[in-house]
Structure of Putative proline/betaine transporter:
Amino acid sequence: MTTKAPARTPWKAVLGGSVGNMVEWYDWFVYASFATYFAASFFPKGNPTAQLLNTAGIFAVGFFMRPVGGWLLGRFADRRGRKAALTLTVTLMSGSALLIAIAPTYASVGYFGAAVLLVARLMQGLSVGGEYAASATYLTEATPPGRRGFASSFQYVSMTAGQLIGLGLQIILQRTMSEEALSSYGWRIPFIIGAAGAAVVFYLRRNLLETEAYDEEARDAAPGAGEAGGRPAHERGTLRQLLQHKREFALVIALTMGGTLAYYTYTTYLTKYLSNTAGLEKSTATLVSFCALFVFMLLQPAAGALSDRIGRRPLLITFGVGATLGTVPLMNALSQVSGFAGALALSLLGLVIVTGYTSINAVVKAELFPTHVRALGVALPYAIANAMFGGTAEYVALWFKNAGIESGYYWYVAGCAAVSLLVYVFMRETRDAALSRSERGGREAVPASARV
């Protein structure tokens, strides 16, 4: 009796699907991490919290563009292919980063500069709305069964790497430039770097090869394919087809709700929270975020691999319980930290909890939908949930703080996590889902181009 060798992880596909994602999210998070420096450049002088609220509002607007991007680019990925969508999203991101880098200030052109900032954020929202689905779908489809959780976890590895690069650059600039120089022109540097990086990734992504699942769907729809079952291009990625999976659509929104809110609380908002509420120096708060995110990044593949062994639901449930019961005491404790070590330990605890969601949420969503509507099915409901909860996280947190009831935000996060926890408890396990006809027939669905 022979033992089948375990399927290998297609590293070329993982790298190709992740490297662009890193640049996309570098640009996305750089806006948030440098907001404290450029907020005064685009709005009249006044209350610093009010200026941050204005920039946070524009940050949130980018999230509300994500459902549009999820619909348009998810549809594009299902019709034209995952590779084509990945190339288009990084092109949009490069243009948006360049716009922010050259945006004029309030002192020179009044609110026109803020309008340019808004247009750039809309472009970023459009791009990221499609990038998440294209990347999640590509990584999931290009990986054999039994390795998908591990491979798809690199989506958040690359997302976090992008944020770490942004935070690392911020630390360097904080130590080499004065506060005045950073607020005057230094904040433009990371956006220039982001635009250049996205241009490089555009070239790299042009050399990606399509996944077997998508190629199979396209071949089956070709003239003369007979009764293979593929859908013509004009029927793939449509809302009509997506609405045939209403339960899965609602499921993605509900399972994303608590996860995305917790994620943005402990990543994007954390630096501002440690600075504005706990009273840490900006440089210390940034260093805390950098170190915590580095450890968080390393945890993702381990958790993804664990889900390949025990299933997706146990990790999601662990996150749901931890976020529901732990958010209020953890945020209260973070508000009272006085040094680097305490802030780092508590931040890591929050991110360890969030790992139960981040490491596998992409693969879970991709495993819920069939090939002809997979990208749109991942993109649109996820983008809606992000617009409603992730994109507004910072704004809602600052609103509670400005109103003098900051602890209300902690309960808001815990409540959303509790709703998602109920979904995790009752949803079906997706680990063994077949993503293509070849997998249903027992063969590995790994494109030859992705094998290494």
About this structure: DSSP finds 22 helices and no strands in the chain.
